[in-house]
Amino acid sequence: MAGKGEGPAIGIDLGTTYSCVGVWQHDRVEIIANDQGNRTTPSYVGFTDSERLIGDAAKNQVAMNPINTVFG
């Protein structure tokens, strides 16, 4: 196990509405942006016959595919 000051630490907030990831390094926290450039991601996962959807993509299709979408 790394001691104090050895490398970055990663924190994951799995919220019921939104989730985010932060990295502690160089005495500060940086929140990591997702593929859309947002610092938070909707806590949704959806499944179709051909793909797995996460975040905004899953949230946007929940009305059409509620039985295969998991959220908050």
Explain what you see:
The chain is mostly beta strands and 72 residues long. The protein has one domain (9-71): ATPase, nucleotide binding domain (Nucleotidyltransferase, domain 5). The protein has one helix at 56-60, and strands at 9-14, 18-25, 28-31, 41-42, 44-47, 52-54, 69-71. The strands form 2 sheets. Strands 1, 2, 3 and 4 form a 4-stranded antiparallel sheet that branches. β1 and β2 (18-25) form a beta hairpin. The protein is elongated. The mean pLDDT is 94.
Can you give keywords for this protein?
72 residues, mainly beta, Nucleotidyltransferase, domain 5, four-stranded antiparallel sheet, three-stranded antiparallel sheet, 1 helix, Hsp_70_fam
Assign the CATH superfamily. ATPase, nucleotide binding domain
From the alpha carbons, calculate the radius of gyration and give it in angstroms.
16 Å
Q: What is the CATH domain class? A: Alpha Beta
Fraction of residues in H or I helices: under 10%
Order of helices and strands: EEEEEEHE
| Average pLDDT reading | 94
Low-pLDDT regions = none
Task: Tell me about the largest β-sheet.
Answer: 4 strands, antiparallel
CATH architecture: 2-Layer Sandwich
Shape: elongated
Sheet/helix structural class: mainly beta
Number of helices: 1
Tally the structural domains.
1
Strand content: 35-45%
CATH fold annotation: Nucleotidyltransferase, domain 5
Beta strand count: 7
C-alpha termini separation: 33 Å
